[in-house]
Design a protein that fits this description.
heterodimer, A: 215 residues, alpha+beta, Immunoglobulin-like, four-stranded antiparallel beta sheet, 3 helices, 9 strands, elongated, B: 168 residues, mainly alpha, Butyryl-CoA Dehydrogenase, subunit A, domain 3
Chain lengths: 215, 168
């Protein structure tokens, strides 16, 4: 090993060695304080944060869908839903301003049906390649919250001949909150819907929130 | 203050910032299905930015001790130690045998000075060859690190001058 000291050496060489080390450490510390080294620094928020439980903003557009619907054991007239012992085949539609803006898939033989706000339909032919947009994957009505706005949920039991109405529920938009909205209903001569869970999510929410609330 | 010392101090400052500043950003992509991956695992498609210190820390936390040690040695310990030896060389008389000795030491360390830059280049090349269009981007911290490495390459040229005169 080479001898790095001789007669003209400074008296305290280690003190001099420490100068560049101190400079490196000082500048590193100065920049590390705002934590530039944290992984994921370059992340940009890909949407607005969802404030669950907050009221709907006027003029804003929302995704609305029923995540769960429970029907009474018999229809509004007190008769069995389907012939034999089969349960009802539940589906629902959302009407806004008198127009149908969304129709769900039907859930066979069930008194409690649930839906996800996200679903992708694949066919064998899609194996060769398929392009799907985010909008296609979101299974919900898109509604703009206007003053005194109302939507109508029409719940039906799908039959081969004719669909039987299970109930029509009118919902004022200003009564809804962002996130899960639970409604309990009483059985009447025109209603056999026992319970509805409605999910509301602002359009433009982050994908993470969409996935969390819609799946 | 001599130009050599100023250059050493500047290189030290650049090195200090370059070690903790954002060095490389990796933007994972899954081609046509990027949006789908985003839906189900948003974190998997988030852009991740690393500093050299951050990369060493993450390698250590992921139990890649060997890589953490190699990266730490070549990008932190050697460059800092080299700059310290240069500073020490400026304190000695230019014609002293100590300066020659110190420069010999630093010349040995210099061989490893660009290893970290090479590591970054290899990383970018690897990420760019991944399927799905993943992207790796050099951030400003890398330029400071390279500037520091270049600065410490120039320093021995400036120190050697008086020694040559003495040798003549």
């Amino acid at each position: 090993m080479s001898n790095i000291t001789d007669s003209d050496s400074p008296k305290r060489p280690w003190l001099h060695l420490a100068i560049p080390i101190s400079i490196v450490a000082c500048f590193a510390l100065f920049f590390v304080l705002p934590d530039n080294s944290k992984p994921g620094d370059g992340n940009q928020s890909q949407g607005n944060e969802v404030d669950e439980g907050s009221s709907l903003t006027e003029g804003a557009t929302y995704y609305i869908f029923a995540s769960e619907i429970e029907l009474e054991s018999t229809n509004a007239k007190g008769d069995p839903w389907d012939a034999g012992e089969n349960g009802p085949d539940i589906k629902y539609r959302i009407l806004w301003k008198g127009n149908q803006v969304f129709q769900s898939e039907e859930k066979d033989d069930s008194l409690i049906a649930d839906w996800s706000g996200l679903s992708i339909d694949f066919d064998w032919s899609d194996l060769g390649g398929k392009t799907i947009s985010t909008d296609e994957a979101i299974k919900a009505a898109r509604i703009r919250n206007e003053k005194e706005g109302v939507i109508e949920l029409v719940v039906e039991d799908e039959d081969a001949v004719d669909d039987d109405l299970a109930g029509r529920v009118e919902i004022k938009l200003d009564e809804l909150k962002v996130g899960l909205n639970k409604r309990k209903l009483s059985k009447t001569a025109t209603n056999a819907v026992k319970r509805i869970n409605i999910q509301v999510l602002p359009q433009g929410s982050s994908l993470k929130d969409l996935v969390e609330l819609m799946r | 203050m001599s130009k050599v010392r100023l250059l050493i101090l500047l290189s030290s400052a650049f090195l200090g910032i370059g070690l903790v500043a954002p060095t490389i950003s990796i933007e994972p992509r899954a081609g046509e299905f990027t949006w789908l991956v985003k839906l189900w695992d948003q974190e998997a498609t988030e852009t991740v930015t690393y500093s050299i210190f951050g990369a060493i820390r993450d390698l250590f936390l992921m139990d890649n001790l060997f890589l953490a040690l190699v990266l730490g040695l070549f990008s932190v310990v050697f460059p800092v130690f080299k700059l310290s030896l240069y500073w020490l060389a400026t304190v000695h008389h230019p014609n002293s045998s100590s300066v020659a000795s110190l420069l010999k030491w630093t010349a040995r360390l210099s061989k490893f000075s660009m290893v970290e830059v090479l590591f970054l280049a290899l990383l970018i090349l690897t990420v760019k060859t991944l399927p799905g269009g993943s992207e790796a981007t050099i951030q400003w911290g890398a330029y400071l690190f390279v500037a520091s490495a270049l600065g410490s390459m120039i320093v021995p040229m400036l120190i050697e001058k008086p020694e040559r005169k003495g040798a003549e």
